[in-house]
Structure formats: structure tokens, C-alpha cells
Amino acid sequence: MRKTLSRALQWRRNTILLLVAIAAVALLAACQPQTEAEEAAPEAPQAADTSEEAMPSSTFESCQAAQEAGMAFCEAPMLAALVEAGELPPVDERLPVDPMVGNHRIPESQAVMERGEYGGTLRLLDFDAGTIGHDAGWISAEPWVETEDIKHDFATLSDSIFTLSISDDDMEFTFHMRKGMKFSNGADFDTEDVQFFWDHILHNETLTPLIGTRWRAGNDPTGNVGVLEVIDRYTFKVTYDEPYGGWPGLFTYGSGPHRFTDSDYLKQLHEDFADPASLSALLDKHGFEEGEWNRLYGLYTNGNRQHETGLPSLSPYILTEMGETLAIMERNPYYWKVDEWGQQLPYIDRLEISIVPDVNAATLKIIAGEADMVRRGVNPADMALYIQNAEDKGYEVVVLDMHASTGEVYLNMTYADPAWQEVVNDVDFRKALSYAIDRDTIIDAVYSGLAKPPQTMDPVTDIEQAEAILDSLGLDERDADGCRLTPSGAPISISFNFTPFTGESLPTAEIVAQNWNDIGICTSVKQLEQNLFLTQAGANETQAMVWWAHYPRWPWHESNDYIGQAWQRHYAPLWMAWYEWNLGGGKDAAENPDETDPLVVGVEPPQAYKDLRTLQSELFATSNPADHERIWNAMIAIFRDNYFWISAADPLQNPLIVNEGLGNVAKKGYHIQSANEAEFYYWQDDSRR
Amino acid sequence: MLAQYIGRRLLLLIPLLFIVSIISFALIQLPPGDILNMEVLRLRSAGTQISEEQVEALRQLYGLDKSMPEQYWLWLSNILLEGNFGTSFTYVKPVGEILAARVPLTAAVAIFTALFVWITAVPIGVYSATHQYSLIDYFWTFISFIGIATPGFLLALIFLWVAFVLFDISAIGLFSQQYETAPWSWAKFLDMLQHIWVPIVIIGMAGTAGLMRTMRGMMLDELNKQYVITARSKGLTEIRLLVKYPVRTSLNPMISTIGWMLPSIISGEVLVSMVLNIPTTGPVLLQALLNQDMFLAGSIVFILSVLTVIGTLISDILLVWLDPRIRYEGMT
User: Fold this and answer.
1) Contacts of residue B190 in chain A, CB cutoff 8 Å?
2) CA–CA separation, B194 vs A1, rounded Å?
3) Domains in chain B, ordered, with CATH?
4) Taking the complete model, does pTM exceed 0.90, yes or no?
5) Would you call A254 and B131 a contact, using CB atoms and an 8 Å cutoff?
């Protein structure tokens, strides 16, 4: 009987083995056809091309043929087919009379845009499930006016959506629009849309509860908001009551101060215009309460986390399909830029955006050659992996400069510890701490060599001199643990906070703490959860931190970084509070303020900081590039001489993953910029078109 | 008696669920700061400048200008009265819509995994017990220890690496590219079957190993009991004897864990799903917690708690019904 049983179980075992074998075969089956399919897919269109002999061999030849036939511009075959079918007006009617020609942003020293051929798909990566906003979001950004590079040099100011002229007193800004320019849905883009934005978005208290400083004269919270005047259908003027020549510097980058959308579309979401019944149906559909139309409005227009299709835009690509792990964007048939040969941009037909959970999954996609252009998804720590697989998978690893630093060192000048206050306000003390930082080790260990020593700050590492400075400051006594004592005999200890928002903060904090311990400034490192970190920093409870900021290399982008506020206050929370209280209108606005609370009234800053703030105001007042340079250099001198913060490395570099067949990608200059001029990208090899 | 038992248990659910809802909501509010900090950081890190009017608009957009109890009451009353779980901050979409997009796949993975676990673990457990200390028993014991000891995400990583090295693909996702945004069709379903076995085997590994061990242990207890010997001496065939008596008794642990399956159908295996990029609800919950997206996280936690409570109830009822030896508590 035992035997029968074991035979029965034997049979069962065999079945299990068989199942395992089937599973193994399934594994092969599941994986193999996929790779074959991927290899086979690009060849299919080629076969189709050769079968029709009458077809021109390149899309440019058909473009020339169209121009000979009297057309001013020509278009992608995909759109020509729609015109043929009567679904789109001809290209000349879709473009403005004066489309933007060629690239204004990338300087010739970085790349010269070649003539591209139409067609193909560009594969990108994104992270936030069910929404897009990273690389694809940046590609969609169209600034109001442009400068070369992202340095915002006003000498290179050129037209983009608008052409701008600034009055001599830097108070009047006249914007000329492109006649006949259209949104992606074919609706006209004219001053009516601008007026709608100004009156019903910017000045609507529900949508814009607080009009930000960028719309106020001098970029100052107490400045008056500008006044819009519509001159004609294609011209409008914004006037400030004080000089604000630096204003355009705030919107030559990214999507401008506002991303325009067809006002007729927006009226369907706007309480003052929408039909109440259809508005409440929409509210209901999206799970909002009655009256929460501003949330509905935000849902449809949020360009940073886009997931609703159908939003009219001025971008080269528009979202057509949105899945949980894949989004599709297709060319905007009304896009208003052409190349020098009269071909409407963009060249590539569609974007295919895979949404992965995190950077590690992105790495796998990259090394499998399944993405054509990756900026945000790269991780410098994976450089070796990228390079190892680059040749096999047909991509290039281009190392470019970053626009931001992910691990800068900040000392809190207003941290309320008596021993700390005894020393930190002496610039020589901060200089000694800067001298102690071993930047070579940080560059090697934290950035795998992909960084340079600071360009605009003193990069010196000299431990002996650091110790000599500390001794000369009267910090030559030490306690039993070897920690230096202040002149009055109190031990100095630095509690150094960081939050793992970027991967660089932990190793940077640890190396710096070690360097400071080595010169007798006892330092301990503490990791905090992000929100707690920010809350403590804002409440002046952080003594020193590693945080990230934009470089002191361009004055406009994130200009608050330099005066002590990179989202959260960092190097002197109480100096900032003093400014807000005394000069920022805080004193007048407050009801029953607690004037004994230092967080409210602040602490009077030293002259150098006041000078810095004054210079920044002057910078915002003028549009003269020569003045900008002079003022900015004076500001840099203040950062450099005062060690308001300690730069560990600048610039950082980051790899950009680019398919080697992709043309017109700038392989010099800034990371964020090369990844954004996607309307000029094209596939050099027709197997990808 | 059974009806009375069920009724009493159901009544107990009401205060329990109320407390659960408060805890779910409060837990997510506990950390300092709010969603807005995270959102601004996210934007800045992506290179986007954000001005104070945008921050203020976001604050209103998220309804953060209301007080905590007010937010809680709105949330709960919407759930109870309208079945509306609120709107996620990060996705700016109704929570219901986000879950609806992901729950079917999550449920499919969970159910297939459970089937995989039962189909493999029960026979192996029975075999190991009836052939205790045989070579094959040792083999499966060894395998099951590995299965219990290796975390699922590690298996997933190893799998990805092997697939990359051997087959040159990034084996993440649940569909081939062309089906990802396509509506459901037979072809899409077949395509899914080609991919879904990977997470099923990986997620099921630990469960299989555990259940295999439990089955073996329970069987060993039963096999030496008098009734088995009696049955055998009466001439019952071995298969019939096994299936009819000891296996049936040994299935109790399986029944009592059915309750846990219910929440897992909704929650998904977080880490494995993250690694394999499977669009289940697991990664959404993790992100929601990290971002303090309170309506999304609170609603998922709340739904999971409700399902756990209901699942436990179902298990208890099933057990009482299947195994008369288990008594109604407090009924004697």
C-alpha cells in the first residue's frame, strides 16, 4: 500500500517537475519573441518605403517639392496625410505669418542645428506614476522670451513666444505677439488670451490668492503689481511704477511666468464663465465639492504633473494617451517654429514616455537601451554601468554641467547658541571651516570625479592654515575630548543636519564632519526626515546643514538661494526675518505681533548682507547687461569674501543618456538645456524614422 | 447559533472601524510638515522655479487651509455618504479613480499568487510529511528555507539581472509596450499572462515555502493519530485515507489565512511591485505615505484595515463551519 501511495505521489512529483519545465519554457518564450519583435519592428517602415517607388527618398525632398508648388512652409508626412484627408488646414494657414526660425537658445559653440528629417518616436522616462512632468515636462516648456544658454545674459535676449521691447526707464514692457499663432487645438493665440490670463487668473483671488513678487515692481513683496494694457490684437504692454528691468530675467527659462492656454478652453473650467450645469458635472466627475472649481482648474492646467489629455498648448508635443506606466505625446500640428529650411518643427512624430517607479528601474531601462534620452533618470553612481553597456545598446553617455549643486554646506549665522554666536559671526572662523573641507575627497568619493572645485568661491583646502586661523581667533584651548573651546571657555560643537533628498547629502555631511573634527571643531551628523528637516530649518533650529542650491553663476534663476532661502531658510533665518519685518511690510501687516519673538522680528544683519540685498534690488531694477555684470560681480565678491555658505564643488556634472542615432543634441553646455530642445531632435538613420 | 455569532461579530465591527478610521487619518498627519513641502521640493529638483503665488495656489488646491478635524470630517462623511474617498494631492485625481485603475491588476496578481501557493505548497507539504526524512523531503525543506529566508524584492532583483544578462531585456512591467495604454482585449490578456507569472512566482515564493512547512508539520501531527491507524487497518486506500482525513484537518491554517488574502488583493506586494514596476496599488501607497498625501494614504490604509477586519471575520466563520471542533467563543 505504501507503494501505491508513493507511486501516486511520484506521479504528482513528476507533474510538478513538468510544471517547472513548462514555466522555464514559458520564460524563454516570454522573453525571446519580445527581443525579436523589437529588432524587427524598426525595419518594417523601411520595407514599406522601398515598395513605393514614387515616394521621394527623404522628407526634405517632398518639402522642397511643396515649396516649389508655392507653399511657404512644409510639414511632416503624418500631418500632410491629415491635410489630405481634410482634417487639418494646410500648413501655411496653421503657422503664424512670422514663425520662430531656428534655435535661439543653444549657442553655436555648443551645437549647430542641422537640417533634420521627419518621423519616428523618441522614448523617454518619467517617475511619478500616472503623471508626466520630468523630461517630457521640460520639453513642453516654452519661455516668453529667450536668452542664449541659461545664463540669462540680456545681451542675447531674443524672441520666443513674444518679441519684447523694454522702455529706457525699465518700467514699460511691450510684448509683440506672432500674428496668426495658434494653440494646439487650432484656436488663435492673441491678446484676448493674455487679457483673460491677466484679469481672470492672475487677478482672480480664488485661483491666485497671493500675487507673487515676480509680478511686483522690483521683485519686491511690497512692490505694486504691474498694469496690463492691451494695445491691439497682437500687442500688449505691462507697466510698473518703479524700474524693473530685470523682470525678463525671471522668465527666459522654463515655461515663462505663465504657460498660456486657450482662454475658450479655460472658460469651461472657470466659475465666472462656465455653464453651471456642466461645471458641476465636471466637479462631480473628478470627486470635488461644489465650489472647488479652483481645484478642478488646477487638475486640468497643472503642467508639472500632467495627466489629463486635451489641454491646448503652445508646446511641440501634446499628451494624447495617459496610462499608468506609459504616456504618449504627439506632435502639435500648430507648432509655431520652423527650421531654416522652412520645415515645421518638431521633426520627431511622437514621444513615448515609460513611467518607472524610481531611478533604479530607470537604470535598467537605460542599460537595456530602452530609452533614447534621459536627463532626470540618471544617477552618476551608475556611470560604470552606463558606459559598460553604451556601445552594445547604441547610446552615448554625454557628461554635461549641472545647473544646480546637490550638496552645499551652510552654517546658520543666527543659530541661538551662545558659544556658537561667539564665533560664527567672525568671517575668519567660517573661512577656517571652509579651508578644512577636503574638496578633492568629496569630488572623488561623492561625485565619482564628476565635479570641479568651486569656480566662484575660494576652493582652497589648507588644514594647517585652518588650524592657524582658529588658534589666532583665540580658539586654541581644547577640552578633554580634543574639542576647541571659545575664547570664553565654552565648548563649540556643531550639530550638522541633512535629509536624504539627494543621494549626495549623506556622504558630503560625513566627510565635512570628519574634516571639522580633524581641526578640533567637534561635529556630529544627524539625518532627519525631509519635512522635519525643513520645519526645523524654518524655525531657526538648525545649526548647520547640507542642502542643495543653484550656483552663484547666474543671478536670476532661484535668486532667493543667494539671500538665504532655498525653499527653506538656510544660512541666516533671522536676517531674513529682519528684512521681512522691517522692509518687507511685515510690521504693517501684522496684527498683535509678538515683538519679543526673534522669528517674527529677526536680528539685524551685518552690513555685508545688507549690501547684498541692496545689490540684488539694483540688479532687478535694470535691464542693462553691463550693469548686470557689474552688480552680479559685486554680489559674487560678497559671497566669496563672507563665506555666507561653503561651496563643496561647482559645477557638478551629470551624464546625459542620448541614443547615438539622435541628431541635434547639444553635447556641450548644460545638462538641463541639452535635454530640452527636443523640437530639433531628429533620427539620423531612417530605420528609426 | 451561527447566525447569532455572525450578528454579534458584525455589530462589533462598527466601533472598531470608526476607531480604525481615526487612527488611519491621524497617523498620516503625525509627521511634521505637509504635502506642500514635498511638492515644492519635487518641482525644484526637477529644475522648475516655483513662486509664492504658485505655492499659495497649491495650498488652496490641496484644501490645506482647512483645520484638521474639519479635514477629517469631510473625508469620513464623503466616504460614508457618497463613497467618495477624496482627491489625491499628488495625482490631483479622485482616490477612487486611482484605485480603480490599479485594483484589478493587483487583485489578479494576488489571486493568481494564492492559487500558485496552494497548488504547489499543499502537494509538496503532504509528500514531505508522508516521506519524512527522505531525500526529496530534505530537498524541499532546503528549498523552503531559502524561500522563507530570501526577501521577495531580492529574488526580483536577481531575476531582473538574470533576464538582462541572458535575454538582454529589462523585464519590468506587466505588458509589452504596445499594449500598455491599449484597452483590454484578448491579445492584451494573453500578453499579460506572458508577464504576470514572474511576480506571481516571486511573490508566491515565501508563501509557498511557509505553507509547505506548515502543511508538513500539521500532517506529521495527524499522521500518527489513532484514527489514521484505524482507517489504515480497515483497509482504506492510502490516497483516499490521506485526502479524506489528515489533509482535511491540516488545511485549517490555510483557511484561517484566507482572511489575510483580502487586504493583499488591494494592497499588493509593495517592494516586489516597485522593483518589477508592476502597476499595483503597493507603490502608490508607498509614495502616498512618503509624500504625506493624506487622503490617498489614509483611504488606502482605511480600506486595507476594513478588509483585514472583514477577512478575519470570514476566516473565523469558515473555520467554525468547516471544523466543528472549533467552538463559538463565549457560547459554551
Assistant:
1) none
2) 42
3) 104-285 (1.10.3720.10)
4) no
5) no
